[in-house]
Amino acid sequence: MSRRLWLLLCPALTLVASCAPPASPRAVEQAPFAPPSATAPPDPGIAPPQVQLLAPGGPPLPPSQRPQGQLTDWSESLADELNIPRAALQAYGYAQRSIEESLPECGLSWTVLAGIGSVESSHGRHGGARLDMTGRPSKPIIGLPLDGGEGVKRIPDTDGGELDGDVEWDRAVGPLQFIPTTWAKWQVDADGDGVADPQDIDDAALAAGRYLCSAGGGDLRDVDVFWKALLTYNQSRSYGQEVLDWADHYGRSSHQVPVVASGR
After folding, report:
1. Distance CA 195, CA 142 (A)
2. pLDDT band for position 259 (cuts 50, 70, 90)
3. Is 55 exposed, middle or buried (0-12, 13-18, 19+ CB in 10 A)?
4. Over 70: is that where the pLDDT of 262 sits?
5. What SS3 state is found at 142?
6. Is 112 in a helix, a strand, or coil?
7. Among 89, 134, 154, 179, which residue's Cβ finds the most Cβ atoms within 10 Å?
8. Where is the region Disordered (predicted)?
9. How would you classify residue 127: left for phi > 0, otherwise alpha for psi between -120 and 50, otherwise beta?
10. In the chain, % of residues over pLDDT 90
11. CA gap 85, 199 in Å, rounded
12. Contacts 24+ apart (CB under 8 A), 211-216
């Protein structure tokens, strides 16, 4: 269970002794160490190349034309060193470039999204899943029912089970763990396949970026704005610090890797 998902189950949404999380799947699946503690904002990392953004209103695109694929060379250079799946890196980098166009004052970096993806689901690898070339996990990532039991937040079903397969209770879904009501507000088809899907890391990354920019209400490179946005995403300082630490680690580590300057 991801740390954020566990925090959703805690009534106060805070990390306290009576509601301590189990071992994070990220700690098992992704890395044998915890990155050093960082100070906000995190290192923005090696910037992704410029890309041609998806034009709205067009016909559905086949996987071979997934716009995130323009970042293949960039992701190939970084993926192994950072231990982030290539499809996830492409989703984070494309989301940064898209936000720069639509919300240039936000200052969102791909490293922030990578930090969230790490803590939430080990970038779509939770439970042994793997991302395919379209950015979808090999098996759906679905959290526990939010049924109001002991130590569990109560959220009755809001989507008729459409996203989480549960017609009685809501569950957090996808690599970035959206609950259905949040997804309903921020959903986006980021890869042009005709479907806005929280299991698709392309869609989830851009939706998360837009959410953070709205929640922060300013430039995420400002310390106070960064923390406001992150604590709106999840009301736990411990969660936020873990996201920050991973984001900064990815950013700093990326500067040590030879990176291809142009996308494909």
Report:
1. 18
2. confident
3. exposed
4. no
5. strand
6. helix
7. 89
8. 25-71, 121-151
9. left
10. 80
11. 15
12. 211/182, 211/186, 212/106, 212/108, 212/112, 213/99, 213/103, 213/106, 213/108, 216/106
How distant, in Å, are the alpha carbons of 59, 129, 159, 170, 188 from that of 100? 24, 31, 31, 32, 16
Q: Tell me how long the chain is.
A: 264
For 121-140, how does the pLDDT look when each residue is reduced to its tens digit (9 = 90+)? 999 999 999 999 999 999 99
Query: Looking at residue 125, what DSSP letter applies?
Result: T
pLDDT at 150 over 80: no
3-class SS letters over 196-220: CCCCCHHHHHHHHHHHHHHHHCCCC
Pair of tokens at residue 231: 């604590």
- What is the C-alpha to C-alpha distance for residues 68 and 151, in angstroms, rounded to an integer? 39
Closest by CA to 151, choosing from 1, 242, 2, 16, is 16
What is the pTM assigned to this prediction? 0.88
Of 191 and 3, the structure prediction assigns the larger pLDDT to 191
Amino acid identity at 120: E
